[in-house]
Amino acid sequence: MPKYVAAIDQGTTSTRCVIFDHRGLIVSLAQKEHRQIYPQPGWVEHDPLEIWGCTRAMIHESLAKASLQPGDIAAVGVTNQRETTIVWDRFTGKPYYNAIVWQDMRTKSLCDELALEGGQDRFRAKVGLPLSPYFSGTKIKWLLENITSVRIAADRGEALFGNLDSWEIWWLTGGPQGGAHVTDVTNASRTMLMNLETLDWDDEILAIMGIPRQMLPRIVPSSDPNPWGYTLKEDPFESVIPVCGDLGDQQAALVGQTCFSAGEAKNTYGTGCFMLLNTGMQPIQSQSGLLTTLAFQIGKNPAVYALEGSVAITGALVQWLRDNLGLIKKSSEVEVLARTVEDTGGIYFVPAFSGLFAPYWRSDARGVIVGMTRYTNKGHIARAALEATAYQTREVLDAMESDSGVRLKALKVDGGMVQDELLMQFQSDILDVPVLRPKVAETTSLGAAYAAGIAVNYWDNLEDLRSNWQIDKTWQPQMDVDTRTRLYKGWRKAVERTFGWVE
Predict the structure, then answer these.
(1) pLDDT at res. 234
(2) CA atoms of 488 and 447, how far apart (whole Å)
(3) What 8-state DSSP symbol labels residue 339?
(4) CA distance 268 to 141
(5) Rounded distance, CA 136 to CA 134, Å?
(6) Three state DSSP letters for 54-118
């Protein structure tokens, strides 16, 4: 009888294979970073074959670390960096071009052209999203229009599109030897091509974008009792295991945090920062710059929707301090550096490196540090970088409360940055709500494992999953109202300074 469930967590900077037991605890974890490719300013790419190589290696490593056999695994779930776009050859598996990453800004002019008729919200009523380079749709359009081999192959029916979930599942289930070409409702909802009501590709938008339907994956539930395929005995699991769970990374974290009821929310602190609020079985169209998206779909049950606030740069800002400025040698050192000062010395750091996402959606914005004097030192910059994450989260939460009419009572948090206690305390202070960190911080991987495990009855129901969730630490707000108001007013003033930089 299989004892564990495996999750492939394919993120923006690394790929993990995480194996969980029935209590939702980590049995084994293996992780490997992949290259970030920057061909020119504003462009961000990944090598899909490098990522698949990392995936294979991490599967083997995670099994070996825990001395497990592939037959010990009941099911495989996948979670992934969303919106990152690949088009590849269905017969060879070779990509026609590098993966265009969600942060990439090259399609801004395409978005501007599409917005000439109907504005930035031209498709929002159908897809819940504004026109933005963030989403997959214009990335596919760019590949079709700029890479000749993609257009030729697409017209012949030889080209397959997928976000990283589709790429991983296709290879896991056989690749060129009959791999399943699927994506779940959460990933499909990030393409700008899926109708929120029908949960199918929208033919009108496909026609406007010039995207052939035949290159798109089949849309499936996030947790599917009818597996899309099975791992091959040869590689990489060396055993026949059902692949039946798929969630975009932020929706996976929502599931991993067991936010199954309307009104429950989580915030994930990774490369970017993403807050999701479960809104139940009806999509809510945001009036405040948020995204209407799918939260999850379990089997044949109705789909569950969410409001999402997406912030482009949070953990990536810490990496920038490390890699571009050399202020720190390891990301974990940023908190130590930030604690060398009492406050930011009056500076604000708005990391609009790729424009601003929610709630502004300003692709003309660029990053600024404001308020500097001769007194400013690297400790102030490090502290301002951490506080930027908390301020951006506050902006998203304000928008969520405006749209939903729900006042958040506590915020569940996860992701790499939640180990930074200085940040978590400031987050609680600037939000004026308790911040709760769970014992299992790898909630994205856990959500993918839950989706796969539920599909094969490894867990019986959602209440089984709720019983696994436990608090590791709680931060309570300690800041007075006047200080909170003053600091946030300064942040909003700093954000305005980023607007209109790119003409």
Answers:
(1) 63
(2) 33
(3) T
(4) 30
(5) 7
(6) HHHHHHHHHHHHCCCCHHHEEEEEEEECCCCEEEEECCCCCECCCEECCCCCCCHHHHHHHHCCC
Residue that has been written with the tokens 């257009």 in this structure: 151
Residue 259 tokens, joined: 């936010």
Burial of 402 (0-12, 13-18, 19+ CB in 10 A): middle
pLDDT value at residue 137: 95
C-alpha span between 27 and 338 (Å, rounded) = 33
- Residue identified by tokens 């006042």 is 407
238: tokens are 């060396």
Tokens of 67: 């001395």
Q: Apex CA 358: angle with CA 357 and CA 359, to 5°? A: 130
Q: Residue count of the chain, please give it.
A: 503
For residue 251, give the amino acid letter: Q
Position 103 pLDDT exceeds 70: yes
Average pLDDT over residues 115-143: 93
Long-range contacts of 58-61 (CB under 8 A, 24+ apart): 58/8, 58/15, 58/16, 58/17, 58/30, 58/31, 58/32, 59/6, 59/8, 59/17, 59/30, 59/236, 59/237, 60/236, 61/17, 61/30
- Lowest mean pLDDT of 98-112, 304-318, 326-340, name the range: 304-318
Q: SS3 string of 184-198?
A: EHHHHCCCCCEECCC
308: nearest Cα among 51, 134, 61, 56:
134
Distance from CA of residue 495 to its chain's centroid?
23
Task: Report CA-CA distances (Å) from 236 to 55, 177, 459.
Answer: 9, 14, 25
* SS3 category, 170: helix
What tokens appear for 77 in the block?
């779930």
Task: End-to-end CA distance of the chain: give it in Å, rounded.
Answer: 61
Tokens (6 digits) for 403: 């749209």
* Statement: residue 287 has pLDDT above 90: no
231 pLDDT band (50/70/90 cuts)? confident
CA–CA gap between residue 320 and residue 317 (Å, rounded): 5
Q: What is the pLDDT of residues 338-363, one digit of tens each?
A: 999 999 999 999 999 888 888 888 88
Instruction: Give yes or no for a contact between 311 and 272, defined as CB atoms under 8 angstroms apart.
Output: yes
Give the list of residues 6+ apart from residue 469 with CB closer than 8 angstroms, or none: 24, 257, 258, 438
